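Researcher: Re-running this chain for the archive, since the previous output was lost when a drive failed. Same request as before.
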Amino acid sequence: MRSRKFMATLLCGPALLVAGCQSLPPQARETACAACPATVTVPAGHFLMGSPASDDETWSLEREGPQHAVVIARPFTMGKFEVTREEFSQFVAETGEIGGGCFDWNSREWVADDQRDWRNPGFAQTDRDPVVCVNWEDAKAYARWLSTKTGRDWRLPTEAEWEYAARAGTTTRRPWGESADAGCAYANFSDQTLKRALGTEPAANCADGFVHTAPVGSLLPNAWGLHDMLGNAWEWTEDCWHEGYAGAPDDGSARSDPGCVRRVNRGAGWNSNPRNVRSSNRGNYAGVYRYNIIGFRVVLADAAPNKIAVEPD
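Model: Regenerated structure tokens:
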């Protein structure tokens, strides 16, 4: 597939003091070990997080606003892809089985199915597909295992880090532009392929060729070399869900509350309404449940000094 690139622009003006602001797309790093996910260095900079009041695709400004400036003071290292079934299987093989049961989307509603799990999410996958049917605790456990195995500090991205990386210097609704109909070369979501197979509506007026999840890297990356930031699988983030950004930190750190129940998911998934497939769209699910549309990616905390709020035991 022929590669296309965006010209990313990060404006480091006097209104915001940004340490180490960069405008050049980073280069992909080599993997640090056989078990390590491939990573990309995300440059420092700043951006406006959330949706403007003028965006008529926003579901609710109470959820996606107010738009606010966030500074990412230093570069950080992020998974180039969503964690794959193959990568997750190494974790399971060394630590033991995770719990089963998964909510299955049958094109009409969610159905809890005790027979579903990350190996059997309800549709065929390859080892290169993103792992789904994993909850927030599973994702955190994977990051802890990877940290122990590599001697480095892996974690989930914060919500702010995620949106900054997804935008990759853009200010449009989507990294490729404004329209979802132009997105099938970059994202796997509800499109004509899914509509023909499952009758799903609404659907974008394009076809990505995948009914369910796609092997990671099948579609084009954003300007910073990150694949599937929109579509394929929703992604768990570190943050506790808050309805809107009132009181949100401006330094890229996570929001966390004692006893947090609902966690922020970003990016939309293989069955998502095109309206959900936007850089600023936010989802939230109970962290204890597993869904066959939700996976995750990781960041290297020892190369990413943006703060993580620690919950009391």
